[in-house]
Amino acid sequence: MRQITAEDLDYLAIGAAILGTGGGGDPFIGKLMAQQAIAEEGPVTLLAADEIADDALVLPSAMMGAPTVMLEKIPEGLEAVRALRAEERRLGRKADATSPIECGGINSQIPFLLAARTGLPVLDGDGMGRAFPELQMETFHVYGVAGTPAVVADEHGAIVTIEAKDNFQLEWLARGVTIRMGGHAQLIDYPMSGADFKRTAVRGTVSMGLAIGEAVHNAHSRGIYPVEAVCAATQHTIYGRGIVLFRGKVVDVERYTRAGFAVGHATLQGLAEYQGSQLTIEFQNENLVAQRDGEMLASVPDLICLLDSEVATAVTTERLRYGQRVVAIGIPTPEIMRSEPALAVWGPAAFGYDIPFIPLEARFKDYYRKYGVASDKEKYLGE
Amino acid sequence: MRQITAEDLDYLAIGAAILGTGGGGDPFIGKLMAQQAIAEEGPVTLLAADEIADDALVLPSAMMGAPTVMLEKIPEGLEAVRALRAEERRLGRKADATSPIECGGINSQIPFLLAARTGLPVLDGDGMGRAFPELQMETFHVYGVAGTPAVVADEHGAIVTIEAKDNFQLEWLARGVTIRMGGHAQLIDYPMSGADFKRTAVRGTVSMGLAIGEAVHNAHSRGIYPVEAVCAATQHTIYGRGIVLFRGKVVDVERYTRAGFAVGHATLQGLAEYQGSQLTIEFQNENLVAQRDGEMLASVPDLICLLDSEVATAVTTERLRYGQRVVAIGIPTPEIMRSEPALAVWGPAAFGYDIPFIPLEARFKDYYRKYGVASDKEKYLGE
């Protein structure tokens, strides 16, 4: 248990932007709203998954749609509360906690906005362990939790409650409603028991976002290179240490919108020890694969993050531009995100890549033998 | 009170297609479904508005979307029941009756399908008195009934409950959901008391649809010209007698799809006493205006119906084709549909025509002096 203050949300925003792996949306507006709510209502309790009762009711919360739209169509502020109340009414039961659905990007902040306004605790875990673009791309879905009934709410007081035949139709219908609400809305989905949260969530991701943010913020004063601080911040988690994949200058960005996604690639020309080499990152909202001179270095669902080479803050897909000096790092995903059913939902093939998923620990054995891996990942280090 | 049998629905389908004024959707699939339900469950009770208690709960029912899609994506059959049950659950109360939302076209049939499956009576009245394309184009809306909470249900068991800031947003959101459900869905909206139904519904429209259908069906055996039988069938209702506007041959049809509507016009070359003259009908799903040689003869919300010149069945917008011999008739709308707030929603200006609404009775005074009008329409016959 830990009390989350407005200042903590500054750190969380920095860390969550990195966990957004290029996407997930700028946490800025969400952070301001959550900070205002905490200023008015007091700090929010963050509970470890183990601290919630098995029979508790957990109602995860998020914004749905295009975070860029939020910069022009500002939320009213109590959408998430109305969505929660509608879900409680539908289920005939009060919520005991909320949680993130997505720990990367703006959705790291929304549960704190909701929690501050309702007095609920936030659970330390989420359904993506990073950012992903669709509602069925969640460990909650992979491990059998129904996404419905779900509620989508807008700033005018509209409330749409969705029951669907499966989590794919939930995504399809909720996306349609969100579009008609103007491009973004507040969402409650995957209502579940505390026991189901413990079984299916990617644990500790809020704490990890906070830790990454604090590491970035304090690196210079501690005399640590900020990019190294980010890599070290995930070392003793279920993820494992981040690894520098490349340093370079952005020399090409092709980015276009297809079916509502920001799709494209960026090319980095190597600097320092990477001189003479090229890295290509392909993205679909989030960074999906990283190849150095044609050789695959990392792929989804492992995290591929572009960081500012000086201060190690996230460089998101929409902010990529010619001349930026960036460092590409990889962060291994937890094992709960690498099971066969999980990879069926978000492995390279799910994004159209005809390649197997090879974990970072298996690609960079020497590095991970040196720094160590989580106990359930030792299989990747074998001869 | 009257029992409605499967055979009655054959008549209702004929009459409702005419009340569809070119749109409203072919009642065929809806009729088959309702007839099967009646065959399995027994006849349905049709109640006059005055026969329902003021404090009864009325849940109007309809299909939403493109009736043409229903020919390929056949309903499962119990969508409307699921929608009704979801609405009852949301309201915490069982329904006492259903009613049509739209008496023209396929939506004349849906309430009988629902009523047969649930044992509810159908109320004899609706919210449009004809066919219109959107959910806020209802007397229920014009006279202050909230359209929400509304429920949209598909054939896979998906149920979407909508609460909106107003009836325009209801239309917008429900339309979006219907599109994502594949183009059509079942709808429950405008939940209201029996008192509100009495106050806001266009009364007797189911009976009138039945009467028109019977008139068409029996005209030949009674030795009456079928088109005249249609005109006479509405004479002693709140509408008033239909009037022949033109007889001719279809010589031109321009029809295209714009924003989901079938938009265009048809030109008729006059036959018999109309030889040498042209009639142009402009439509947007439904027929909106009829002009003879440039002179306006009739406009929305008065009903402009194209009938087969031999058998007087409806010729709908999507079936218009070169060479057809048709008779254009006008049917005056009831006064409840001609108030200032009503015309603001569906007068000529609401469809982009910069003309005042002039009732048929005022345009054709001699005809209506001869045949008479409903008592609240006598003002149109003055010197």
UniProtKB/TrEMBL annotation, chains A, B:
Domain S-Me-THD N-terminal span(s) in chain numbering: 7-163
Residue ranges annotated for the S-Me-THD-like C-terminal domain, each copy included: 166-360
Family matches, as InterPro entries: S-Me-THD-like_C (IPR048350), S-Me-THD_C_sf (IPR024071), S-Me-THD_N (IPR010318), S-Me-THD_N_sf (IPR027479)
Membrane spanning stretches: none
Pfam family, one: S-Me-THD_C
SUPFAM superfamilies xrefs: CV3147-like
Top-rank taxon: Bacteria
Coiled coil: none
Protein name: DUF917 domain-containing protein
Lineage: Bacteria, Bacillati, Chloroflexota, Ktedonobacteria, Ktedonobacterales
